[in-house]
Specification:
Order of helices and strands: EEEHEEEEEEH
Number of helices: 2
CATH class of the largest domain: Alpha Beta
Distance between the termini: 28 Å
Number of domains: 2
Largest sheet: 5 strands, antiparallel
CATH architecture of the largest domain: Roll
Radius of gyration: 18 Å
Strand content: 35-45%
Oligomer: single chain
Bound molecules: zinc ion
Length: 162
């Protein structure tokens, strides 16, 4: 079975930047599961997964523009600390990535300066502007259920629970 539209794919991965610094990996947790062909993943990742076989291990580079986008300059904002979705007594530090409540739901921002009542943040995605170097192992491929196809996402291990 191959990775194609309407398959639920599970994979393990590690993600590094162009300098070889590891940014994320799925070691020690469930593999990531997603429904292929439904824009559940960044476009570049869906593209490199296409037609991969069960058990296949491969490396692929996804350019920033096909990943989390290029960095947008002028994306600094001053926001009240109370708008951050962090525990009340959290110690905020420069460089931390924190969720913030917006009209469009939670999004992650990076703290660039901490004040008494406000923080200055960069609203670029933390992975914006980074060419993404993936090492991937495809650990499961199965047909999506009719329910998953109508919801547009995978259910079960590594997927959505509701
Ligand atoms: Zn669902």
């Amino acid at each position: 079975m191959k990775v194609e539209a309407n398959k639920v794919v599970q994979f393990h991965y590690s993600l590094s930047d162009s300098d070889g610094n590891e940014l994320e990996n799925s070691k020690g947790s469930d593999p990531t599961a997603y429904l292929h062909g439904h824009k559940n993943m960044i476009p570049g990742l869906e593209k490199v997964m296409e037609n991969r076989e069960l058990g296949e291990r491969f490396s692929a580079v996804v350019a920033a523009k096909d990943g989390y986008g290029e960095r947008v300059e002028g994306s600094e904002q001053r926001i009240p600390i109370k708008h951050l979705m962090v525990p009340k007594k959290a110690r905020l530090k420069t460089g931390m990535t924190v969720p913030v409540q917006t009209d469009n739901g939670a999004r992650h921002v990076t703290i660039i300066k901490v004040g008494k009542f406000n923080v200055d943040v960069d609203t670029n995605h933390p992975l914006a502007g980074i060419d993404l170097h993936y090492d991937i192992e495809v650990v499961d491929i199965r047909d999506a259920s009719a329910e998953e196809q109508s919801h547009g996402h995978a259910h079960g291990v590594g997927g959505h629970h509701h």
